[in-house]
């Protein structure tokens, strides 16, 4: 299949198609993706710029109908779309179908938000003067999305942008053109006016800087690596352009002596290794107090080594492949680094299975300290490390000792410690007796420190990024 750009309502093929490779079976080529250049990006921005005023003037009912159509079709096709996702990105099939369903739910939620928009009418401090506070769309929003959630993350950016009256230019990750194309195809039949949504496929190093630099693009929403995000923040700051960044994580899962061992192991196994650990919310640091440490490590090791790794589309598979050769090499490098620093590595080897793919055994690194690279840098793979601590106070200090601050978890049966941790964990999201990964679509998503910058994504808080506030005064 050829994956094309959607520009001004028309499907545009360009450049030498980039092969879309199944990481579970590298002989399986899903299709070839267009490689847009500056010309196609210029056309997409021009189309969005021309269409933005009309969509900004659309009624709440028009917006609801469009988003509700998109959400309904995604949910009706969740098995098909989830299969495409798992084949393209490598999540297990249940995870792929679950992500597709979440994308549909996101569009449904923001369809409702189209009808729930609010404002304020206030009395002025001056006699005879009325005040109205309303929200207006920001205009054209450029979106740069990652490969690890190839339909959910585009959905949670596109849906609020459209709900609040903006036009969109989407640049998805090179590795996952299929999901982006499928989503764009649904959007193209939703009744949305031509040019309001545009899809541009191509090299991020070429498309990204041009998208950010164009003065007709009023805001940038980015999810990806910290170095790239910092560069985008600097570029947008120099242009006084609104920017929203979701970046990395080195998320702690604290396990206290009083934790239910089964609950702690389940939460840690899920958070560290499901989705092949390729989640910014993954539990990559397991901070465990002395009394439960040995029992926890023994049971987690038993559960981890029993995980069934294989082709993402096969029944019973619990962990799929790493997304590509480059990411796999990075994961394996970090395993070697951890061992060279004195960590004891369990698992972590490359796997040669019947089908040629990017397979890796999940890795647990014990006997680590929080100053080791394995605990400072994001691996973005099925690799978790264990840090032994004395008590809750030390656990909290270690959990917060990181440049990241996305998600933080604790397993405990103590209401006192759970309450204190929720208040004092330096993260945007806190989980108690739950995996650090796995969030709802109707509440805010985002972190602190190096993990996030700008307004929160998802839920009702999304309105903060995709609109600007206008205050109008009327005299008698």
From TrEMBL:
<keyword id="KW-0560">Oxidoreductase</keyword>
<feature type="active site">
    <location>
        <position position="246"/>
    </location>
</feature>
<dbReference type="GO" id="GO:0009450">
    <property type="term" value="P:gamma-aminobutyric acid catabolic process"/>
</dbReference>
<comment type="similarity">
    <text>Belongs to the aldehyde dehydrogenase family.</text>
</comment>
<dbReference type="InterPro" id="IPR016160">
    <property type="entry name" value="Ald_DH_CS_CYS"/>
</dbReference>
<dbReference type="InterPro" id="IPR029510">
    <property type="entry name" value="Ald_DH_CS_GLU"/>
</dbReference>
<dbReference type="InterPro" id="IPR016161">
    <property type="entry name" value="Ald_DH/histidinol_DH"/>
</dbReference>
<dbReference type="Pfam" id="PF00171">
    <property type="entry name" value="Aldedh"/>
</dbReference>
<dbReference type="GO" id="GO:0004777">
    <property type="term" value="F:succinate-semialdehyde dehydrogenase (NAD+) activity"/>
</dbReference>
<dbReference type="InterPro" id="IPR016162">
    <property type="entry name" value="Ald_DH_N"/>
</dbReference>
<feature type="domain" description="Aldehyde dehydrogenase">
    <location>
        <begin position="19"/>
        <end position="471"/>
    </location>
</feature>
<dbReference type="InterPro" id="IPR015590">
    <property type="entry name" value="Aldehyde_DH_dom"/>
</dbReference>
<dbReference type="InterPro" id="IPR016163">
    <property type="entry name" value="Ald_DH_C"/>
</dbReference>
<dbReference type="GO" id="GO:0004030">
    <property type="term" value="F:aldehyde dehydrogenase [NAD(P)+] activity"/>
</dbReference>
<dbReference type="InterPro" id="IPR050740">
    <property type="entry name" value="Aldehyde_DH_Superfamily"/>
</dbReference>
<protein>
    <submittedName>
        <fullName>Aldehyde dehydrogenase, thermostable</fullName>
        <ecNumber>1.2.1.5</ecNumber>
    </submittedName>
</protein>
């Amino acid at each position: 299949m050829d994956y094309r750009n959607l520009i001004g309502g028309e499907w545009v093929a360009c450049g030498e198609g980039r092969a879309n490779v199944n990481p579970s079976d590298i002989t399986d080529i899903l299709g070839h993706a267009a490689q847009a250049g500056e010309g196609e990006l210029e056309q997409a921005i021009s189309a969005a710029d021309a269409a933005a005023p009309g969509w900004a003037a659309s009624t709440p009912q028009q917006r609801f109908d469009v988003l509700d159509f998109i959400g309904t079709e995604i949910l009706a096709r969740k098995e098909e779309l989830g299969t495409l996702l798992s084949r393209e990105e490598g999540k297990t099939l249940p995870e792929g179908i679950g992500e597709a369903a979440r994308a549909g739910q996101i569009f449904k939620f923001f369809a409702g938000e189209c009808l729930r928009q609010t404002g304020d009418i206030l009395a002025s401090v001056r006699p005879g003067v009325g005040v109205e506070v309303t929200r207006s769309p920001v205009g054209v929003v450029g979106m740069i999305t990652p490969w690890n959630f190839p339909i959910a993350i585009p959905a949670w950016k596109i849906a609020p942008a459209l709900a609040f009256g903006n036009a969109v230019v989407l640049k998805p990750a090179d590795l996952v053109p299929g999901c982006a194309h499928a989503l764009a195809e649904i959007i193209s039949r939703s009744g949305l006016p031509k040019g309001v949504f545009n899809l541009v496929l191509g090299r991020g190093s070429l498309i990204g800087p041009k998208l950010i630099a164009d003065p007709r693009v009023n805001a940038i929403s980015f999810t990806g690596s910290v170095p790239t995000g910092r560069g985008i923040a600097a570029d947008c700051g120099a242009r006084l352009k609104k920017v929203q960044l979701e970046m990395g994580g080195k998320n702690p899962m604290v396990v206290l002596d009083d934790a239910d061992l089964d609950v702690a192991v389940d939460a840690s196994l899920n958070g560290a290794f499901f989705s092949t650990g390729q989640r910014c919310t993954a539990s990559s640091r397991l901070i465990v107090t002395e009394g439960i440490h040995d029992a926890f490590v023994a049971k987690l090791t038993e559960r981890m080594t029993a995980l069934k790794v294989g082709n993402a589309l096969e029944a019973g598979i619990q962990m799929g492949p790493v997304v590509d050769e480059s990411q796999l090499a990075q994961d394996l490098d970090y395993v070697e680094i951890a061992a060279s620093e004195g960590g004891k590595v369990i698992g972590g080897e490359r796997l040669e299975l019947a089908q040629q793919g990017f397979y890796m055994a999940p890795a647990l690194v014990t006997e680590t300290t929080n100053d080791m690279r394995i605990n400072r840098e994001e691996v973005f793979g099925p690799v978790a490390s264990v840090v032994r601590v004395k008590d809750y106070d030390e656990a909290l200090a270690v959990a917060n000792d990181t440049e990241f601050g996305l998600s933080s978890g604790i397993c405990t049966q103590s209401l006192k410690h759970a309450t204190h941790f929720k208040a004092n964990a330096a993260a945007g999201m806190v989980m108690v007796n739950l995996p650090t990964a796995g969030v709802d679509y109707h509440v805010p998503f985002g972190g602190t420190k190096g993990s996030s910058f700008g307004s929160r994504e998802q839920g009702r808080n999304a309105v903060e990024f995709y609109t600007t506030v206008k205050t109008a005064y009327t005299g008698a």
